[in-house]
Amino acid sequence: MSGLVLATTARTTAVALEGLTGRMVEIEAALTNQTPNFRLVGLPDTALREAQARVRSAVEHSGFEMPSRHLTVNLSPAAVPKHGSGFDLGIAVAVLVTTGVIAREAVGDTVYLGELGLDGRLRPVPGVLPAVRAAARAGRTRVVVPSGSAREAQLVDGIEVVAVPSLRTLAIRHGADLEPVDVEPVPGPPVVRERSSHADLAEVVGNAEAIEALVVAAAGGHHVLMLGPPGAGKTMLATRLPGLLPDLVGEAALDATSIASLAGRGVDRMRARPPWQAPHHTATEASIIGGGSGRIRPGAVTRASGGVLFLDEAPEFAPAVLDSLRQPLESGRVSVHRAAARADFPARFQLILAANPCPCGQWGSTDGLCTCAPSARQRYLGRLSGPLLDRIDIRVRVDRVTAAQLELARGTAGTTTATARQRVLAARARTASRLVGTAWSVNAEVPGSWLRHPDHELAENARAPLAAALERRLVTLRGHDKVLRLAWTLADLSGLERPGRAEVGRALTMRSPDA
Question: Taking a C-beta distance cutoff of 8 angstroms, is the pair 140, 42 a contact?
Fold first, then answer.
């Protein structure tokens, strides 16, 4: 260590995640002539406060000595809450700079991410991908991560990724005069491969109207309510929607992969297929929207971003849980606030609701007798509030398949997922061509101002049915715009330049509460 200047202060950098966004945190370490002690300040949570014990053990097991003076480590900005063990490596490097093991110049603008084991090995932490993205956006050029997180960190372009298995290896890389010691890298969490759905639309018998509704929903990114008796095939239909959707690309793929990383899943490649979330009806508001007592964790609406959120037996969910979906359905984002923190998450998902028409499930069925009182039916579907239903684009009735329909389907090939997906991709290509240069990619995202602009406004004759429905207060202004979006999707599926009266009329029918 000859030639190194003994530093009493040192600075390194780590990342504090707030949702999928990250803030650069400067780790300051200072030695003073007081009673030997190790103090960590800067609003650390319990896991981070315990870094004092992990860092001390890791430093000593790596062949170094902790300073015999008073050591203060500050995480700046001090007013920002810090969570988790991902700051361990940055703290340890700062300590080694103060003792002269590592030169200040070796640290530079490097960002350090990783948890320390007591033996000095580096352990992967959740959220490496969004943290590296934040570092790249902040203009940092290099990031050090545990070996188990190397492939995940390398998904971000424009930043050098240095993967090391241990603190000792990193110190040697930074110029420490030590003999290298081979260690077994700590692996990251197991990677759960995306399931390529083998469920095909061709397996669905009957319910051609519901199948077409799914195709329209996939083509335009629309939300769907399926209403029908038990055994009609609502869940079977819903599980086939992800197979109709195009692959994730660009920022959407990076966001979906970052969300998986933040949720603690193993990541080694970019996510290609839209996610699928189907929480049980006993799910709490925090599990759906996001939250937690310490670190704010993403909920089902975020984990479904870019894909499908399916709520089976929707009226069985707590009314507060259902109504909490209203804001993310409108904005495509969710903001979770706590007394000392706030986290913003993407929540651009397609909502699919499935519901029985009444508690016994037989109301409106041709092969069953409903035993529910009218007031019971009204209360049951009343759990789906008006404001929530107003945000649903398509409402479709799903009936049980009859013996005659089953017999008719024998020997005939139904609509396959591959065929329907080609229609969806062609329609989305027409949409993308029309919306080029805008911030929107599907019809469901287009604002009302664009729909009513003179350049895009429909002919008066085409608008007439919708204008009459609005005049008679059969639709709200939000519903009016949703019908227009739906009509544009129907036109894209038909290869038309713009919707006509037939598309508007059909869109009104698909949105009808009595569908």
Answer: no
Provide the pairing of β-strand 110-112 with 122-123. Answer: unpaired
pLDDT tens per residue, range 474-515: 899 999 999 999 999 999 999 999 999 999 999 999 987 553
CA 55, CA 91: separation in Å to the nearest integer? Answer: 7
Q: What is the DSSP string of 386-434?
A: HHHHTT--EEEE--PPPHHHHHHHTT-----HHHHHHHHHHHHHHHHHH
Beta bridge partners of residue 397, listed in sequence order: 227
Query: What pairing do the DSSP bridges indicate for beta strands 115-116 and 21-32?
Result: unpaired
Strand partners, 263: none
DSSP run (H or E) holding 377: helix 374-381
Strands 21-32 and 350-355, by their bridges, are unpaired
Work out the angle between the directed axes of helices 460-471 and 501-511 (0-180°, nearest 10).
30
Answer whether 349's CB lies under 8 Å from 274's CB.
Answer: no
0.85 surpassed by pTM: yes
Answer whether 244's CB lies under 8 Å from 274's CB. no
CA distance 12 to 305: 34
